[in-house]
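in:
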């Protein structure tokens, strides 16, 4: 480029200017080379100085480490489960290396630490590079106790550097529990709320037997454990004493921020109401963290297979509820977050009042696979008998909303004729798919404005399906149906303002 430029100048301006240009260009290039040499030397010096700084040790008496938390808290640890592990992150904010003389537990009776792969209650001479961090794994083991109520164990990790002491507090809640190992209920049996129960495998209720769960009863299921009901299940809590059926893990995943296993699906199998099981009740119950949710399989529509009221059924890898040729009623309840359908109905007779069916499931690879609600008058499993079955469903004052553009799927043959209706509901559904007869005074595709949407980026796996201002569900419910359930799922009066809202929660 320089040569071509020189030729052009020579043609336009003559030899004199050409010589001047060459001289000035040579001078300029020398200056650039000198500048580059100086710059190189300066950068090398700075890098050397920086390296020397990073390799040096910070001996300032005011220097302090930073920690991911001030107090590391463990959720309830069952005494017969041994232990749980969490992690503490230690930061060196200095531009110099930190020399930690000692890291140790103050007590070491319940807690144990692992520092840089060294499992010991005391570690000495730990170096932490400038602007670097390290992980300390903390394990707690709680010994068996006869105490029925949770108890607290505490300790702290001491960090000694530059004659200065820093501490991170440790806190864990211990709980004794009763183990149910391959329990088969052969006669009427009552489980109380005095201690939680650890179910290690299948808890089976045989035909003719009834398993009763008193208010406040807590069943913690191990991985792949199942509640299999051939007889009957009566789980009737109250607003103050919720019955819990959930996974047994109380610790956290190694995620940033740490994610509680209690929020995750797939922690245990689920509940099966087998063929011939009738009269089952879930009232003020919380069933969560399942692999396949609740399955209801019946041979008769003359008896109620399952009645659900004021309950939460949530967080399933598969469906939350799958029912086949069953009679079922669900009222004032939340059914949410599934990798498959939230509710899959295949034949049967169903009634829904003041329910919220929602799906913003985030644990499946690539997201969930189906809309919230399936209506079918045959079995959709290709390996099963696909003979059409009678199907009827009536849904009142309910809310069906999620991340899909259309949240209902119909797989219904013409014979036998299906009978279904939606009345005073808020539904997410493609307008082109809407036909008027099944939808009576329903609202479509108006955002329910769930509370969780206001902070989902900060806490992406924590959900709150209460309504916020401007929700499309506000004031659209049928007052006659609302009178049957004057209190919403949270215990608030839905009749105070004279107009009830669709779904299980009343806007406040």
């Amino acid at each position: 480029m320089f040569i071509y430029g020189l030729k052009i100048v020579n043609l336009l301006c003559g030899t004199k200017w050409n010589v001047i240009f060459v001289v000035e260009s040579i001078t300029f290039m020398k200056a650039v080379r000198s500048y580059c040499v100086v710059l190189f030397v300066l950068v090398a010096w700075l890098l050397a100085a920086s390296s020397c700084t990073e390799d040096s040790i910070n001996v300032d008496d005011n220097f302090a480490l930073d920690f991911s938390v001030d107090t590391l808290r463990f959720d309830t640890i069952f005494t017969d489960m041994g232990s749980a592990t969490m992690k503490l992150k230690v930061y060196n904010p200095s531009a110099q290396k930190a020399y930690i003389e000692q890291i140790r537990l103050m007590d070491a009776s319940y807690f144990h630490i692992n520092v840089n792969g060294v499992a010991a209650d005391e570690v000495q001479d730990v170096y932490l590079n400038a602007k670097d961090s390290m992980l300390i794994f903390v394990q707690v083991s709680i010994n068996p106790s006869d105490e029925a109520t949770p108890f607290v164990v505490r300790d702290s990790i001491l960090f000694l550097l530059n004659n200065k002491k820093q501490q991170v507090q440790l806190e864990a809640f211990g709980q004794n529990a009763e183990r149910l190992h391959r329990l088969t209920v052969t006669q009427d049996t009552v489980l109380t709320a005095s201690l939680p129960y650890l179910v290690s495998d299948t808890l089976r209720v045989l035909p003719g037997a009834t398993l009763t769960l008193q208010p406040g009863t807590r069943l913690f299921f191990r991985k792949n454990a199942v509640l299999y009901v051939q007889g009957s299940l009566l789980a009737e809590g109250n607003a103050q004493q919720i019955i819990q059926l959930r996974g047994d893990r109380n610790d956290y995943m190694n995620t940033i921020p740490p994610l509680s296993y209690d929020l995750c699906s797939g922690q245990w199998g689920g509940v099966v109401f087998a063929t011939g099981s009738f009269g089952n009740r879930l009232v003020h119950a919380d069933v969560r963290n399942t692999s396949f949710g609740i399955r209801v399989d019946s041979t008769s529509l003359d008896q109620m297979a399952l009645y659900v009221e004021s309950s939460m059924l949530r967080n399933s890898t598969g469906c939350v509820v799958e029912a086949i040729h069953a009679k079922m009623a669900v009222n004032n309840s939340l059914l949410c977050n599934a990798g498959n359908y939230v509710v899959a109905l295949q034949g049967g007779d169903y009634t829904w009042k003041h329910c919220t069916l929602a799906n913003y499931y985030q644990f499946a690879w690539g997201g969930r696979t189906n809309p919230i609600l399936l209506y079918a008058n045959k079995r959709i499993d290709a390996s099963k008998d696909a003979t059409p079955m009678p199907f009827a469903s009536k849904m009142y004052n309910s809310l069906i909303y999620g991340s899909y553009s259309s949240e209902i799927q119909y797989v219904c043959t013409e014979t036998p004729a299906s009978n279904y209706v939606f009345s005073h509901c808020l539904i997410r559904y493609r307008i082109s798919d809407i036909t008027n007869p099944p939808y009576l005074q329903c609202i479509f595709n108006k955002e329910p404005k769930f509370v969780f949407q206001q902070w989902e980026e900060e806490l992406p796996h924590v959900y709150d399906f209460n309504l916020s201002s401007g929700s499309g569900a506000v004031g659209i419910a049928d007052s006659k149906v609302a009178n049957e359930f004057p209190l919403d799922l949270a215990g608030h009066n839905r009749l105070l303002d004279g107009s009830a809202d669709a779904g299980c929660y009343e806007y406040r």
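note: The longest helix spans residues 15-55.
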